[in-house]
Amino acid sequence: MLPKLHQKAPEFTLSDQKGEKHSLSDYKGRWVLLYFYPKDDTPGCTTEACTLRDNFADFKKAGIVVLGVSTDGVKSHDKFAKKYELPFTLLADEEKKVVALYGVWGKKKFMGREYMGTNRMSFLINPEGKIAKIYEKVKPAEHAGEVLGEVKKLRK
């Protein structure tokens, strides 16, 4: 089940592409874009990651921490981050606990076949640790601009 808007974002701890542990509570007091994506180095996921990378200076200027989450492992994340020079943290949810906690793990369809996987979704978390916006239909090439625009509106 999806967390609800304005509720406290579910807490978690995962390892990043370097094997270092990160907890959501480490970022209390800051805006966080928690973005879930299906798989490292696939077309849509690469587009989304590279668009976030290309807008990273604006995210930093706006004080937004970017955390990507997929069920790929630490080594896969490290290779993906290095290949595309991603300046943000990628978290490995190999046990699928966080994707379940955020309700993004579910049935998917591709070329007529059904399977379980991570749905592309994002959560914008405010400095108080509450969910300020849920992005259920993420368009990889447009997502970074959409989030930056949303933060500007929420700060007014």
Characteristics of this structure?
156 residues; alpha+beta; Glutaredoxin; 29% helix; globular
What does this protein look like?
By secondary structure, the protein is of the alpha+beta class. It has a single domain (46-155), classed as Glutaredoxin. It contains five helices and nine strands, in the order βββααβαβαββββα. It has helices at 43-54, 56-61, 74-83, 97-101, 143-155, and strands spanning 13-16, 21-23, 31-36, 64-70, 89-92, 105-110, 113-118, 121-125, 131-135. The strands form two sheets. A seven-stranded mixed beta sheet has the order 2-1-5-4-3-8-9. The chain is globular and about 45 Å long. The model has no long low-confidence stretch (mean pLDDT 94).
The global form is globular
Sequence of secondary-structure elements: EEEHHEHEHEEEEH
Strand arrangement, largest sheet? 2-1-5-4-3-8-9
Q: From the helix content, strand content and strand pairing, which structural class follows?
A: alpha+beta
What is the mean predicted local confidence, pLDDT?
94
Overall CATH class: Alpha Beta
Termini gap: 30 Å
Whole-number tally of structural domains: 1
How is the CATH topology named?
Glutaredoxin
Chain oligomer state: single chain
The CATH superfamily label reads: Glutaredoxin
Q: Secondary-structure map with pairings?
A:
Elements: E1 13-16, E2 21-23, E3 31-36, H1 43-54, H2 56-61, E4 64-70, H3 74-83, E5 89-92, H4 97-101, E6 105-110, E7 113-118, E8 121-125, E9 131-135, H5 143-155
Short description:
Helices cover 29% and strands 29% of the residues.
